[in-house]
Amino acid sequence: MIEQIIDAALERKKPSLVLKNGKVLNVFTGALIAADIAVEGEKIVGIGSYAGEKEIDLAGRIALPGLIDAHVHIESSQLSPEGFAGLVMPRGTTTVIADPHEIVNVCGIAGAQYIADAAKNTPLEVKLMLPSCVPATPFETSGAVLTGADTEKYIRSDLFFGLGEFMNYPGVLNGDKEALQKICAARAAGKAADGHAPGVRGKQLCAYIAAGIATDHECGSAAEAEERAELGMYVLLREGSAAKNAAENCRAVTPYNLRRFLFCTDDRHAADLDKEGHLDNALRVAVQAGMDPIQAVIAATLNAAEAYRLQGKGAIAPGYDADIAVFDDLHAFRCAMTFKKGKCVAKEGKALFDTACRPLPGAVKHTVRLQKLSPDDFRLPLQSGKANVICMQPGTIVTGRAVRSVQRDRGDVLLQGGPLLKLAVAERHRGTGNIGLALAEGFGLRGGAVALTVAHDSHNVIAVGDNNEDLAAAVNFLSSSGGGLAVAAKGEVHGVPLDIAGLMSSLPAEEYVSRVNALTERAYALGIDRRFDAFMSLSFLALLVIPSLKLSDRGLFDAEKFAFCPVEADK
Question: CATH assignment of 2-60?
């Protein structure tokens, strides 16, 4: 093969494919040049003037390296890996660094194996990270547990490319032996370790990085992003469904620190992928916020490839993989064609490969184990008239906290007509019967309840509502349907099942998006503030490692103190 590559580069033979009449963005120099791209097999062999066995006219469009998502949970799309690939590859994405900790928290390593096997049915290159926090904390009930010893065992496997986001940053800073064992295992295997440390600054940040953490996607401000870049960390500019930080954090990018910035989507729902896009959307957001478009492309390609040591990716140059995304321009970022290893895999917004979900292994089916609940199971007795309340905030997964006066009657709080809602997390893996209850405000729902089996990261059932009857109806629907999304109002329940681990759907993407969009409108009809994603925003209220107050199946949790917090507030 190497002889053919050399011969094609020298035109002793015609390259198998030539992309003609386009412009090439050179990510090494920032130059945009008019040139043909010669491809032999899966490799780029030349930039210049070439004639090929097959030629494709780019008609003046711009060829970029295939986009690389530096951190994503495929499960958060709520599609199978096949369906996910069918939505992101037409947007120019050719490689993703995927952390399967959602499905591993439910199904263990068998869940990661399912993601890997299903992804092989597509051209999308998926590099799996070994989840580092299963569960994310010891203060919740998950479907699986991965210990430090398990990490030492699995991190050397070819299944895993590195260590997934280390959310237990207090464990790292406090020298927890299990936490450090996992990081040391990654270092010994020569594999990268991703970070997750919202609000960690100064010497604590230095300690976190010195332990071996290379990246972070949880910067809450440009100042945090700048500090991380100064200390040599890779900063991931995130544009997901619920957490959108790219516009804010790209303000930290300068010509001098550019090489420390990447792009990621983290958690992005199928409906948003279908309507707004994937990394192409993140690029639009950053450029509209003032980031130089060429610098943005470098961050989404070359930087990601070099940060994760993806040899042969991230550039259009001789010897590199023929992973190429063709865009109309560098502002709207409309992708016209996507090539993976020299083959056109998407054109004009459509995947050119089979995106149907293959038969599911038993390990990822029938994962909701929850007894039928009654309205009385959602009663929240308070002795005083004061409660610690979770304050939801649009555009971020960080929550505020407040002490609010509450009305009580017959051993329960009264909610109808006020700003407060009842939040519940019901354990669904081991049949413990645990139900954590708390109060939340800011969501805007009235006259019903919303529930889902996607609750980061242990993925118990999470529900929010203003009356116990609808809360029980919504949760029971999910129990009987094997997981999914549900909206209940006045005794009527509508839902969409998630038959893969209670997290993902085997439906075709188009059908699933249509059904979810209809269900989402039902949710918004209950008065939910449209600045929130009706379901994804709710799913993060169980993520205990994000400040300030969150809820697990075992109770209200203070992420800043890393300890449980009573719902009852001091008078």
Answer: 2.30.40.10
